[in-house]
Amino acid sequence: MCFYTYVVEKFLTFGKEIVRKNMLTFILVSLVVGCGVGFFVAGKRTASGCVLAMGTSNGSETPNENIVVDLSGAVSKPGVYKLKTDSRVGDLLNAGGGVVGDASKTWISKNLNLSKKLEDSAKVYIPFEWEIINQGNYEVVKTEAPNVTNPSGSSLQSSNDEDSGSGGVGSDGKVNVNTASSSDLDKLSGIGPAYAEKIIAGRPYEDIADFESRSGLWASTIAGIKNLITF
User: Fold this and answer.
1) Domain segments of the chain: what residues?
2) What percent of the chain has pLDDT over 70?
3) How far apart are CA 165 and CA 167, in angstroms?
4) Which of 68, 81, 78, 67 is nearest to 127 (CA)?
5) pLDDT of 196
6) Residue ranges with strand state E in the chain
7) DSSP classification of residue 173
8) SS3 label, residue 222
9) pLDDT (tens digit, 9 = 90+) per residue, 136-194?
10) What is the CATH number of domain 157-230?
11) Does CATH number 3.10.20.600 belong to domain 66-130?
12) How far apart are CA 90 and CA 71, in angstroms?
């Protein structure tokens, strides 16, 4: 009985050894085959991916998702902005901080379309209020200075005629303080350029009394020229 048991045990041990060796061999063979199949499949996928990529490049390319637009004028932050391809003018103004206070609101309300789609390399300019000038048609008409008559009935000419010296000195040599030029008044005794301008500024004068009260000259100065002037 012991011998039989010994034989069985040896047989089982031998069988286990064979199975163990074969199992190791089977595992190694399986690993090798599996790795080979994996490399083959991976290589095939990579190759097909390259073919697909090459096929795509031969077709339509992926469009650029951004555009570049220039914003300037009456805005808070003028500059060049990168926006998405479907951006609108309103998006660009938001990026630029909006318009400033002295922007032309009339121009914006009439001409600026905030919903307009932007294009690459476009430029948007917002004008200032002071840039918008009303280009009206104006006609230059030459007019003559009207004659002004003082209460005494003498005709007064414009200051330009007075400065030219026409009608300021009568045939008797007296200076008409209502029509004389500054240079004619300056020739009177005691009257300089400053007093001459005062006399001209106070015109017209009715008589010597009115001249004394409104010309701004000293009484002694008027007394020295009253026989040399007329009204």
Assistant:
1) 1-35, 66-130, 157-230
2) 58
3) 6
4) 78
5) 86
6) 66-73, 79-84, 123-126, 148-149, 155-156, 175-176, 229-230
7) S
8) helix
9) 444 555 555 555 555 555 444 444 444 444 467 888 889 998 998 988 888 888 888 88
10) 1.10.150.320
11) yes
12) 12
pLDDT tens digits, residue range 90-121? 999 999 999 998 899 889 988 999 999 999 99
Answer yes or no: are the C-beta atoms of 137 and 84 closer than 8 Å.
no
pTM (predicted TM-score): 0.35
How confident is the model over 66-80, as pLDDT tens digits? 999 999 999 999 999
Other C-beta atoms closer than 10 Å to the C-beta of 52 total 10
Task: Return the closest-CA partner of residue 164 out of 175, 180, 185.
Answer: 180
Encoded amino acid at 154, one letter: S
CA-to-CA dists, residue 217 to 176, 214, 231, angstroms: 16, 8, 16
Partners of 219 in the β-ladder: none
Distance CA 94, CA 169 (A): 74
Residue 219 phi/psi, 5° resolution? Answer: -60, -35
**């002295």: which residue's tokens?**
102
Among residues 117, 118, 116, 70, the alpha carbon closest in space to that of 96 is found at 70
Which two three-digit tokens encode residue 121? 């390399």
